[in-house]
Amino acid sequence: MIRRFLFVTISVLAAATLLAQAPTLADFMDRFTAEWIRTSPDQAAATRYFPGAEQQAFERQLTPLTAAWAKNRRDLARRGLTDLGRFDSARLTRADRLSADLMRWQLQTFVDGERYADYAFPFEQFAGANVNLINTFTVVHPLRSDSDADNYLVRLQQVPARIDEAIAEARRIAANDLIPPRFILTATITQMKEFIGQPAARNPLVTTVSEKLALVKTIPDARREALRAQAEKIVAGEIYPAWQKAIAFLEPLVPRVNDDAGLWRLKGGAEAYAYNLRRHTTTGLTPDQIHEIGLRQVATIEADMDRLLRQIGRTEGSVKARIEQLKKDQSYPLTEEGRAQIMAEVDRILRDAERRSGELFDHRPTTAVIAQPFPRFRENNAAANYTAPPPDASRPGIFQIPLRPSNMTKFGLRTLVYHETVPGHHFQIALEAENADLPRFRRVRAFGGIPALGEGWGLYAERLAAESGWYDGDVEGHLGQLDAELFRARRLVVDTGIHAKHWTRQQAIDYGIEASEIERYVVNPGQACAYMIGQLKLIELRDRARARLGTRFSFKDYHNAVLALGTLPLPMLEREVNAYIDERSK
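Above: the chain sequence. Below: its structure as tokens.
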């Protein structure tokens, strides 16, 4: 009897010890996220994720671009899903359940994409290795100290190896005839030739060193010049030859393809497009459904624009023609002075938006946001974008704008700034990074962003500014907001048209979208649909809250509720906002 009692007692104690040692969900998420980020030095450097020597080591490396690296990461995602499945959802807090649901959705989406990975070609004009590698240095890599500069040069020497890996992957994919359309290859080759078509001293990989280190007064002038000269030597002697090798690989591919643009042209392309729509919109909407939503939105917005155009005496021609003339009438000179003027106006708009935003938001980021133009070699192919700050705020949020001729206009500039900075991407992304209530994997977006909410919020911010009187007395500015919204509605039509309805590149251009944007949709299928699908859901949820809450509804409260949630797929967002409405209505 005594022995049995002792055995039971020991068993209970052993079980209690095991229970105490079992990882909590928070422990698992922290450990798994660290393991995930350790597989990608680029991600570690961008997020400044680790302390001390470990972080320094990652900031001296570049992430591999091999099939083996991609396979290892997908294997890790599968293991993460298995481990996550061991936690009983019913025993989690509501907040933990939401984070677990999000991680599960992101990892599963990542795993599901394995069969479609080869539909993304390693070299392309918008986000290929030839673009992302440069962005790593000119935008993301910190240059605030001598050690940062040393790390920069060490990483710079690894660029040719990464280009060799990308060539090997591109050769494997091309052998299966998964080659981009001819006009994409041509645009990519042209961009790459422009990158190496200037003296190395003027290359952005070199000028970045000069410009950023000029602000670091602790580094002596002689040392700054030595670092700049070393960067120039690497670019001229190692990076330019790597680009030439990649161009030599790409040029013979051009005669092998035609200008058919959509994924429909490839074996399995319809399934690949359906996956990309699910991934980007987080919905089950079909190409036909999205196409019809776009057509309806285009008709509604064009009617609103026609009314405003008539108010300012512009009555002749189509809406498209009248807007094109308005853009020309508000253009900046295509000179260095004009470039300086537009960037000064961007900064003025940004600071004014920060002041106005206090009326609508009582939680705003403490991290700064700045604006800068893209390097010249990217102007013809880039789209305006926002790069998030790391959680340690060692770098501000960065809004980049391509100053090509079509963008050198005051028309629509306010709306673009609102979308990319305040109250758009900077508010949504920087607040997420600063939100200590969220698990760290969510604060650094370890498993990627979700365009349906991220871009949907940016487009919602554009509409919010108009609804809140920011354009009062500025009909042309309001037209710019509507034109930006029309652009996103046309994207629904064009993206589905290209990839599911056999539209040609020229058809899409004739519908009202500039060539560089069409080329973006070709290499990033489905992403263009995320903007308006996300915006419509945010407006729908806001209108639902206002109808249910009546006088208890406030914009600040609704925005707090949405932004505090961080990045989520739209179905999870709707579930959580419905819960917020239920709680507030009691």
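The first strand starts at residue 369 and ends at 373.
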